[in-house]
Structure formats: structure tokens, C-alpha cells
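Ticket #4471: structure output looks truncated?

Reporter: J.K.
Steps to reproduce: submitted the chain below (130 residues) through the standard prediction queue, then opened the result file.
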Amino acid sequence: MRNRPGQAGFTLIETLVGFVVLSSALIMSFAVLSDALRVTTHMAAQETAFREIDKQIARLRLARQLTAGRSEGALPSGRWTLTITPVAARPQAGAMPVSAFRVTGRFIPANVVGEGRILADTILLSGHGS
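Returned output as attached by the reporter:
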């Protein structure tokens, strides 16, 4: 439809096209914001798990006597596991006998089945200073 001389405004088609363009832009914006919120929540959960695993590794360092095994705990967003496995070490002549252990900390989100993601992996010595 053509506007008559002296009439200003948009046609119905122009208005509908404008609404479609605006709606598409809003939907894309909400999708980006939703993804950003999901990633932020996931990263906060991993940070909480890392802090707990780091605290458990610090506790093991203070204990000085390690044994192979596994421990785990619950978090609001999932669970953490700490696996302690012996590492073969070559004894040095004249050195104090020590045992080496690999300590691996993992975070398993609440909605994930499996081993989860490694957040910490370190070697600790046991038996020194005893």
C-alpha cells in the first residue's frame, strides 16, 4: 500500500518486519546471557571444589604419613575425590627413606556421570622427618 500524500507512518508490512528483527535480536541476546550465566555458575562450582581439594592436600602435607587410598566429599554443586597412589622412587645412598605418592583431585558436577575433571595433580613425600 502506498501512503496518500500528506499521510506519514509505516505500513503494516514494515511494522511486522521491524518486530521480527527486534525479536530476533532479543532472542539472541537472551541466549548469550543464558550461556554466560551457565558458564559463570560452572566456574564458581569448580572454584569451590578446587578450594576444598586444596584444603585436603594441605591436610595431607601436614600429616607427613600417607597411605594409598581414596577419599571423597560432597559439595552443593557436585562432589570431589582425592586419589592417593604410590609412585616408584629410586632410593639414594645416604638419604632418608621416603615414599612418594601421587595425589589427584577431581571434581564431578552433580549432573555428570564418570570420573570428572582433574583440578589438582601433585606428588607428595611421606616419611621425611620421622
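Triage note (M.O.): checked the attachment and the full C-alpha cell line is present. The first strand starts at residue 69 and ends at 75.
Status: closed, working as intended.
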